[in-house]
């Protein structure tokens, strides 16, 4: 029986990237729908779950994507609500690569040091990848700080994380080099999650940092988020710190993405969201 993936994308044009990865990971057919709204999800899901018997539903799965993470989360919830009884299929949400990227970044760092009891800082961390990395660090037992150029934005992000995930994250303002230096005081690990082409962490700060042991950047567009590293860095040591550039993180991200695709078709009762995806990342 063919493995069929239902691709629900919040953008007008469904992601070609997501479709190609799905096919490379073993899906036989990808049914792509773009511009999907939450109110339109149920009929699409019903089309997926009523065409095969309960014992065959593991051969069908749903992927939720798009560039808007909040929209993706709404589509995921709408899909879950459309299930009932044995009529369900496995789901994965990774809008804008938020979950696979955060999972890969934290897994890379967890692979070179024990995160339990460390102080972890996510610079420019109020975006989709940054907030998810904060959750994963907290789950690993780290004390987590999340920065933004606006303290109000950082506070709102941390409040939302506590409400949704039950994790305590400390907000901090870092709108200049002095703020970045203060945010990193006593830190052992750092992720930079700023906008593409924006340097967040100058070499003058991290190069001489006394306690910092490992760093990861998720910006592959020059100038990089961490000054003085290479996008291809994969656990290389620079100034006494283990460093992962965006492509060093991205290689694992792609492996995680494909591994999750394979897993979707193993059972019909899975929801691969942040923590399930991180579990896959740690297993690779």
Description:
There is one protein chain. This protein has 284 residues and is of the alpha/beta class. 39% of the residues lie in helices and 20% in strands. It has ten helices and twelve strands. It has helices at 16-24, 41-49, 69-81, 98-110, 128-139, 151-165, 177-183, 203-206, 246-264, 274-283; strands spanning 4-9, 29-33, 60-65, 90-93, 119-123, 143-148, 169-173, 189-192, 214-217, 234-238, 241-244, 271-272. The strands form two sheets. A seven-stranded mixed sheet has the order 7-6-5-8-9-11-10. Helix 4 packs across helix 5 (128-139) and helix 9 crosses helix 10. The radius of gyration is 19 Å and the shape is elongated.
CATH fold topology of the largest domain: Rossmann fold
How many domains would you count in the coordinates? 2
Helix content range: 25-40%
* Weakly predicted, low-confidence segments: none
Q: Shape, please? A: elongated
- The CATH superfamily of the largest domain bears the name NAD(P)-binding Rossmann-like Domain
Q: Got a strand count?
A: 12
Compute the CA-based radius of gyration.
Answer: 19 Å
Across the major sheet, the strand order is 7-6-5-8-9-11-10
Distance between the termini: 28 Å
Number of helical segments with 4 or more residues: 10
Estimated share of beta-strand residues: 15-25%
What do the pLDDT scores average to?
98
